[in-house]
Input
Amino acid sequence: MSVVHVDGRRLARPGACVVLALALFILALRLAVAGILPMVVAAVAVPATFLALVVALFRAGAALGPYALDETGTPRPLHARHGFWVVVTSAVLGLPMLGNFGLLDPWETHYAEVAREMLSRGDLISTWWAQEGWFFSKPVLDFWIQALAMASLGVHTAPGSVLQGWSGHVAHPEWAVRLPSFLLATFGAYMLYKGVARTAGRRAGLFGALVLQTMPQWFLLSHQSITDMPLVASLSAAMGLVLLGMAAPEGEVVTVYQVSFNTRAGTRTVRLHAMHLVLVAFAAITLPQVAYLVGRNLTGLHPHVDAFFAGSTGNCDLPGQAACAAQAYVHPALQPALQAVLWCVVFATATFLVHAERRRARVLFLAAWLCAGVATMGKGPAGVVLPGGVAFAYLLFTRRLRVLLSLEILPGVLMVAAMVLPWYLAMYARHGKLFIDELVLKNMVGRTLEHIHDTNVGDDTSFRYYIWQLGYAFFPWSGLVAAATLWWARTREHDEDGHDPSTFLVTWLFLAFALFTTMLTKFHHYIFPAVPPAAMLTGLWLDRTTRRSEGASPEAGAEGHDRLMLGGLAVLGAVLVAAVGRDLVANGDYIGQARLLGLFTYLYHRAWPETVDVRAVFAAATVVATALTLALAVPRWRARGTALFIAGALLFALFGLDIYLVRLAPHWGQREVVEAYYANRASEAEPLVAYQMNWKGENFYTGNRIAIFLSGGAPLNAYVKRVIEGGARAFYVVLEPSRLESLRNELREQATVVPLTKASLNNKFVLVRATPR
Amino acid sequence: MPPENRTPLWRSAWLAPALAAAVVAYFLLIGLGDAGLWDPVEVHAAEISRRLAAATEPLPTRDELGAGELPFDSIALGFRLFGISAGAGRTGLAVWATLGVVAVVVWLSRFADRRAALYGGVILASLPLYFLQARTMAGDIATMATGAIAFAALSIAVFDDGGRRRVLALVLGVAALGLGVLARGVLVGIALPALTVGIAWALTRIAGVPIFEGDSDRRPRDRTRDLAGGALLVIGVGALGLGSYVLFTSLPGTTPFLLGIRVAQAAPRALSFDLLIAQLGHALFPWSAFVPFAFGRALFRPATASLRESHGRLLLVVATALAFGILSLVASRATVLPFVAPAAISAIVALALRDLERGAPPSFTMAVATVGMGVLLARDFLRAPETGLAPFVTENAVFPHTFDLTAHTLVITSAVLFLGVAGTLMAIPTTGFAALVSPSRRGGAIVLAGVLAALVFRAAYYPRLAEQLSPKGVFDSYARHRRGAEPLALLGVNESTALYGNVGAVTTLAGAAAADTWLFGGGAPARKWLALRGDELPAVNALFRARSPSPRNLPVLDGRSSAVLLASNELATDEQSASPLDAIVLAGRPSAARPAEGEFGNALAAVGWEVTGAHGERLTAAKARKPFHLRVYLGVRAKVHGGYCTFVHIDHTPTRFSAEHTEWAAYPMIYWNVGDVLADDYEITLPAPFRAGSYSLYFGIGELPCTGDGRMKVTRGASDGHDRLLLGSITVGS
Output
């Protein structure tokens, strides 16, 4: 066993730096949320403080020991570590504009609203969905992490106050809402990089991570607070840890860091190792759930039966909102505290089974189970089915099934159960089989076996559906992904050690493709789990082919043949990326420029704003990508071409995140329209009405303090009459422009309607002011 | 020769080529006249070619052709030589297809070895895209063949040895380029093959790899190769530029000679880069399950391979890439053509399989992935049977859903054959039955499995589909049923098909009213026959029902196909009608159906409903996640002129189940006569949340497009206030 002795005093300064950097990072975010920091300042301050935190963590890690030496046993400064640059890339791409544009309807605002309601209602168990009642479509993780971020970063979640910043500023809750997606994306990319770097080489890992972070579906979803990044990032981390575990030499144990502190009572020694990290993370995810469950039956020290209610706190009096009412448990015997006992037992059992584990491979596999559990909390069984299936298939293909015995399956399953199931049981206890029917049977099982809510009318949903979307998801790497995948097919499944990361990645890619192609419900973003393996495979291929051009060919005798084949693949890749790029520019049944947005939105044919035209950028990117792909055919240009390609892809990613998404967001959300309401109204006595709307932006940005009329008629007129009689000099309505005439007709006897916002601000929704006649 | 010295028959050198030739002949040449002319897909080409052959009518213009003239000339030659018949017309195209196979065989024999050549020829002939294009007067087999010939000849001219051989190949290649222009213009006919060889030559130079094994630099032979390669590159670039210019500057609706394709009035709406991938996946099935992996495998270099084989593999990759690119370019302003380089794909597959016999390692991963891919593709055929039309690459075809069940069975048979055998042979070289096949025969065994699987399509699937699509089956039924000189008329069926179908003189009718008058207008003989397109049946049936004192459906004597049917004004005593409308337009409410009381808009009454299984058997209860049929019976009280959809709701908390029929395609509302009873049949699978119990069943009639709240008012019966009629309760069992 390797033991590293550490003087505790050496940790004081790095530890303090970590705390300080963390405080600065949180401060920057809080100031950004509060609207105090102008956009440009926030765009610099947030990434800068984040990177300071990363540097501080590295220094602390170096002082403690894990980061003191590299894999060869020699010191390596931070700037020479590829993993650092993976994180820097994530920060530079992902942080500057993270919170500087509004949430997109309907999913971002939808989930953010559920998270807000959790805080507003003081109930972290039952998920409430604006005026529609209980929300049983998604597992809980995304709501918890958004709620945690909102609470930590000062978002006002009370009705009517979401956009209230500090001292008259307009708040930017989007920083908080999206932060968890960004953090998970960074973590997932980093862990997958580690896995590939360990098994295929540092440069392969770096290339792969850079390719991944510059693929549109990855970088755009890192800026979306929806369930897919928590799933895929955690899943990627799990896969990276599996790769690390499979590469760990048999019998090797984790390093123990023995930290000595001088105290008044003498020298104290604390022994730390990686298993502690796993256990701490496991406890951090599970025990707060347990504690919260206990707290539901305790007020102070007074035990009582848990009570929960339906309705949106503070908004129950508004039209269209569900009435606030106490609810009864469907299974009252299953009180939260009793559930907590069960989970304590499960937690304790799992901890007992693993706490003494020191073998590096097994510790890594347990960490992988942890990440798979997080992925399952994020979006359901795929979080554990996919990594498990990939691992099993890979071991089968490489004839190493005995490794299954070291995958820690029983403790892993217990850990996942302890993390995932508490919320399910708590919900079942409250809502009964209705919850199971909706979430599990309809939205999980049902989506596999039936068409549920998908918006593919007129589209060919055969095997080509996800090939179609992956072309755009990978751009500008589309051609090289194809080349890399074909290159794999010519090789053996495994090297002499029985291990081949490229086969692992291809297995992952193919299983994800097959799984989601088989599902009857299809959305463009469902194929997202196939993006990381494709990226890593491409990075691996780039690493190997640039080594070839540098003369370091492992198959010197076949070098001429390989050069020819690489030349052919360069042509194939160039043609493919040119064809994909053409789609991004040309219009047909889809607007070309909208295809990247369509990688993660709901309705794919919504009107494109006339004020946004980025076709020239897409055209230029296509030309450059085609040329650089073709250039890879020339051996002596390959290394330089690869570097240029990566640079170009980084620029494209910056464009995608800081210009494309930012310019489109006002037309796909309602932040600006609701902002205009608050700017124009004289007082709270001038309410906002949502007329024939159900996009959720109107709910989130108002804290659900909004009168909702899905249809008009007598109830609308009665409400308007009450408002006018109450002395309001105006009221406001948010609606789709196509419904303006209908609204005018409805209100013609009571009020005059005047639009306040223009299509150039938001081409899908308009804010009108209605003044009494 | 003493018996002990004679080579056994099964080891004879000529046996494999003979077998391969027999396979190719079966797929491409035999039975060309068995299937009748396919209306409208083949009729257009047949008629134009007939005019070319006759030369007494005005010659068709290029815009009428919509394509290059070579295929039409080939069909016309067949008519000239063998008379006007479907088989004669297809003969010329089949000859082109055979020449394409010969080109692939020759090419593989030069760039690989003899066995790979046999594999390649057989694989190409057994690709559904290839053999169906060969056997149909509607496609691009001439383009595919001339392209294969040009590719093979020009590659040999640049990369092969032998001065004389290369000169001959160059001449043949140039001739093939010319023919390619006549087939599909300069982009496909010249740019594609010339650029393929030119770019491959350029890449060889860039990679610093000799073009010819044993060459040293600066021998005179090098320069002629460079000259040829460079010239082809220049020609290819020039053709690409010229063709692109013509493509993007030509007027919509025209077919410029240099383009060989009709420029579209508007760009295809669903154009995206993957359309060709989708086409290949379905049109090459079952081989397409292996094609992606074959590509990767073909990049592998067996230890015994020569430098020329490396060049060959490069040529194939470049050919496939450029075909994809040029067809994508064409599609952006014209139409999606059939993939014109199946020869390259067949060669790639052949090489990959031959490599298994020459030392390439077997791969369990690849085998599993091939099976997985095959399952996904087969699933597409099962979910959407019209996928079977993919090899024809036409938008004019309607898949007859009377063929669905047969299609399912045959697709599964083919998939199991190929995936089961090929998957095992690719994966585990020494286990199970795979151990019976020696490694040196493994590739051949997989080819055999593929051919057998493709035979299911050649021998069963497509012939039976053709029976459904072509009026020939209906003409044959007419010939069997008619007595004496009972006349035949056509409604919606091209009269040219009668010409090729040998039914003698026919009357062509325009419209249901004319058909009704012709059938029932009197005169001798009393009995008359009508061959009509499936979508014409509702109108004719409605007129027939209107004239009948006790309304019944028009007698249909041949309703096997939903595309073309044979009807008559009378039924003989020993005959029974097989009208597809019998299940929809009823004599009355079935007596066992549960009664319903309700009326919509004072026009349509709900008279009953029932739950049945897949074969019409009555069920007392439905089951969640198991398909069943819900039939609602409607009585027509007053004429309705369309513009409505019908829907059912099965209420459940929190979300109900709903199903609707926005179109009554089988029998549109406009044809409903007063007094008719219609069956509104819903195939339903309730989701899992529908546990055992009773659920309220509602029926309603919405106003198209049925996305809003507009509904036909419930004027009688138990309405829920939202114009939904409560029919009763549906029981769901456990």
Observations:
- The CA atoms of residues 730 and 771 of chain A lie 5 Å apart.
- The first strand of chain A starts at residue 3 and ends at 7.
- The longest helix of chain A spans residues 638-668.
